[in-house]
Design brief:
This protein is mainly alpha-helical. 56% of the residues lie in helices and 3% in strands. It has helices spanning 15-20, 39-49, 51-60, 63-82, 88-121, 124-128, 142-156, and strands spanning 2-3, 6-7, 10-11. Strands 1-2-3 form a 3-stranded antiparallel β-sheet, with no helix packed on it. A hairpin with a 2-residue loop joins strand 2 and strand 3.
Length: 179
């Protein structure tokens, strides 16, 4: 008769003891963290770290930190199984590259907003001062040149602070950040 995981006074072995083919005792350090119904959890941890090392790590930690340590080991082991060379670092690096791309896209969108606001705030007298001998598509304002050069710069170089923006204060009639 089975009651609460026990069969006639004995405990069913945890996933670790099943995999290691040993008897699971009441004070088994693995039992609370590697239940019998999740054998793949201990399997990947054992494959990467080894049962002896996992046992040592868990023994050295206070009980309130063991659950978090097991979660971390399981995550790292699964990452190592998928990517044996980089593991978690590979996943973190991939996510960081995605963040960098998105920050660049955000900076370009912000630069485009600045460009559009500068066009909106330019006065008709500024537009009349341009020489008429140059075709309209060939005559770019300095703000448009700045916008194009910032786009070129951001596509060619990687900023240390992903959110750097170049703004030419001399050509701005008023601050764009205040209304």
């Amino acid at each position: 008769m089975k009651e609460g995981g026990r069969k006639q006074g004995t405990m069913s072995p945890c996933a670790a003891c099943k995999l290691l083919r040993r008897r699971c005792t009441r004070d088994c350090v693995f039992a609370p963290y590697f239940p019998a119904d999740e054998p793949q959890k201990f399997g990947s941890v054992h494959k990467v770290f080894g049962a002896s090392n996992v046992n040592k790590m868990l023994q050295e930690l206070p009980e309130h930190q063991r659950s978090d340590a097991v979660s971390s080991m399981v995550y790292e082991a699964n990452a190592r199984v998928r990517d044996p060379v980089y593991g978690c670092v590979g996943a973190i690096s991939s996510l960081q590259q995605q963040v960098d791309v998105l920050q660049t896209q955000l900076a370009l969108a912000q630069a485009e907003v600045v460009h559009m606001r500068m066009r909106q705030f330019s006065t008709p007298s500024d537009q009349q001062q341009q020489p008429s001998s140059v075709p309209p598509e060939a005559s770019n304002s300095s703000s448009e040149n700045l916008y194009q050069s910032s786009r070129l710069l951001s596509s060619q170089t990687k900023s240390l602070f992903g959110m750097d923006m170049v703004v030419d204060q001399a050509n701005m009639g008023q601050s764009l950040w205040s209304y």
